[in-house]
């Protein structure tokens, strides 16, 4: 995170003529989501008989077909000079009151809004085309015997590239070249630029978040914000943890470190920050509590890109306590199998001390706990003879729940996966792990348990389908 947070709103002019220079270049800004509406309703037809609208819409469709970005066509006229939050294109004899340069064919105007993390995102992008230039619509060479004017379709392709956040490209063949030329379709370099911005690739390692406690470190070898969010100049290290919610939940996070100036953020699946600790307290530690709707999220553990406080550093070990309180069971990460074979199953679970009114992870020893899990069985497997497995991991010890309802140390039967139930599998299997368990009554005052749930088929007893992220139970006074 950069220390200065301010609202940025400025415009950038991108002109299709001029000179400059390298592989695809990004402006440093992008849309938060790779899909925008574009208002297109221009008057007129080229000498070739093709309307300007047809040529412009063909250019939009080419970006849609060749890249992850998507333009949604709105066939209505809007003034591209209006600061109305709408993206539009039109011809004009001036560039919003200023004269077009003699060699300028069109201008794309971008405005931005600040982002908590990374560069400002684009909020509006309008294209103004000089109506006094001689345009036509045709493929192939720019200057051809018998054809007058410049091909409007490739101008539209270029300006729409600026709309995406691409800058001029001078070393590779590209529609984003600063000067109009013989290229009339998107080139590999243009497509690669759009892929980088909107391909959805997370350019940093992502761990699945297990609610409970995490220990890790922010250090020189970690991913940087500038790698995660191309275009950002923020060089602070960042760790990413993914999690998903299937019911509304409140997530409470505490990040502590003996050295690190901790910053906690929660981002949505598009890496847009939905909550962050504003560090209003004068401590190195960070805490954040946020109510979240069902969806996919990232927990981001970050620091600053240059030291802010004398007493805190910008690298070092940290611990995060992540507690979840939800109104329903929550998913346990992606599904997997012992052999690595793909499986289309879903696993969720929850721990409640109030008969299912809410589910969370951390309880006092005196709480009376019910732990339940649900497995959505792979459609290929239901109706078959199978078995269910419940495992509890405490430190290095693995315990299996047996058919008699007792947890048995796996060390007693090495290599054996003890089954909780043998049964014909149905679409949804509900598992009751414990009911009315009071840790204090067993002499437990402090403990961390990681639960795993799985199932298998009698026909292949060596295979087990389970999940990546454990259900964590923390007992603490
Ligand atoms: Zn340009």
What does this structure look like?
It is a single chain. The protein contains four helices and 32 strands. With 477 residues, the chain is mainly beta. It folds into three domains: 11-198, 3-Layer(aba) Sandwich (Collagenase (Catalytic Domain)); 206-326, Sandwich (Jelly Rolls), CATH 2.60.120; 332-475, S-adenosyl-L-methionine-dependent methyltransferases. Strands 21, 23, 25, 26, 27, 28, 30, 31 and 32 form a nine-stranded mixed sheet that branches. The chain has a six-stranded mixed sheet with strand order 1-6-7-5-3-4, with helices on one face. Strands 11-13-18-15-16 form a five-stranded mixed sheet, with no helix packed on it. Strand 26 (397-401) and strand 27 (407-409) form a beta hairpin. Helix 1 packs across helix 2 (152-164). It binds zinc ion (ZN). Zinc ion (ZN) is lined by residues 14-16, 158, 162, 168.
